[in-house]
């Protein structure tokens, strides 16, 4: 169809279809909205666009139905104009004859008048409302023509209504008052006047038992009413309208029985809980559970991290619950205010900072590393997606107080995305590569509230608990298409605060089903890990190993451990520092002995082991230098009662584990004094790994042929049953 004008694209631009009915409109990435189609100064249709994230072709079908500009006037029974009136139109047929349709026009102006564009021949019923109060219900109207004029007379407010004047009230007209209509006054409707429906007239309201209402109230967090909030009502048939809350924060929507659809509030940059109410096949009116609360949350601050006073931020991969292989990075927000959030320029600069290591870092490379915890989380029926070596915490130097955000590539790498951006811009990025940010932008299609959330431990942001960490959880698909379990990627964070919704906030917003809250059913220890908050006088310990000749692990009195293999010791962390030291921090010690286990890397060599510990700010330290041979296991122990009783740290020079019979145990991989099933399982877990694989560990390649296989098992067996160890 040629010559159709399409309005509503960004920048209030208009485009016109060519002789073949084709059109082209430039839009910003992520734009979505409704456009209006007109031809010969008459509206011929509308079309809704979903978020646009790449070049797309969208065909719009319209049915040419002539429309007339219909004058409408609404007065009260004294003939005075009534402003602010909306007309809800209901017809048993849509313009294309496919079914029933509802729409809303208005409001009337100061003179009680406005002009509406109505399809020629339209027949149906009209309901008049003001401030969500019904003034006239289901007025039947005849077929609309070019000469039609709608005049409506509305009754006075019902007794007891706030708008009803009371005797003596200033608004009450007195005899002789100018506002009092007198017989014959022009403003007084007379019988038979077009504006006054008479008995039997087609405009007489008729009861409609098929209509029901949804009523709710919108308040702020202080329970104060919120007027002027727009409620967008969208049915599953695509028909939509907007209702505005009145001065008491109350809104009422009238729908037909069996209606299915959504109510979503909006006003400026405010955030509402829940984000929307969803209804399916309604059969009766709703007067409860339809309320909304305005949150104090500032949308623009959501997902923003702030570095602590030291500027040292630490992050680690806690759990991998998604089938994608993502990469996750952080980037400083310093200078990013020069770009509109969510714009192509903003996305390109954020990716550049992460990729170039310029005020940005890559924290997780899922294809190359594993998370600390494996197995299923909570009641999840999903499989175990975790694989690869655990890398521990990553130290990320930031300026004290510096603000930063995270960005995730759901199923790919920053390098891939960077290539797309350099070659053709964001429009070339496919969906599974499209960057997902921790930050949110009001009404933005991809930077959405709820993409990330925080799981805090006790006093995680309390200044008296500086060593406490917390978890940030991510959904690796765009909000609206996600499963709401918030375990696709779980990141451990220390040294920075974050402004983000909690699980309780997600459930309040309707984004996370309560049955998917895994906190109380966590059986793998994530909640125990982030709920450690030592008191000021708690005994703590820090073990560091200098030199690239060995790996380090620490086992607790209860058998829990922490190290390069991950671990289940609550609150304990493992990290590689920038100067290539391995550091294990235990923020809270139990009574008993802690076992330090060292496993040779490659050819081994010289190492320096340092142990620091104390209570609060009182610190003691001790160190040992030693040499470790290829494939060798060494151990040392620290006895906490001795530590406490003598206010000093005493530990042995690392040595080969010894069994009860005094014989050295070369293959006691966990240093517990026996070669048993646990040691065999550790070797079995490396089965089939080859040199070059991410998870290959040369320590277990005992015959040094570049592959961990049957021959390594034989190598151990031969020595287990011989006198040569």
UniProtKB/TrEMBL annotation:
Composition bias, Low complexity: 160-208
Domain DUF4114: 398-495
Record PROSITE patterns: EF_HAND_1
Source species, domain of life: Bacteria
GO function terms (MF aspect): hydrolase activity, hydrolyzing O-glycosyl compounds
Protein name in UniProt: DUF4114 domain-containing protein
SUPFAM superfamilies in the cross-refs: Carboxypeptidase regulatory domain-like (SSF49464), Type I dockerin domain (SSF63446)
Single GO biological process annotation from the record: polysaccharide catabolic process
Organism of origin: Desulfonema ishimotonii
Segments of skewed composition (Polar residues): 96-106
Signal peptide region: none
Pfam families: Dockerin_1 (PF00404), DUF4114 (PF13448)
Region of interest called Disordered, as start-end residue ranges on this chain: 91-116, 142-223
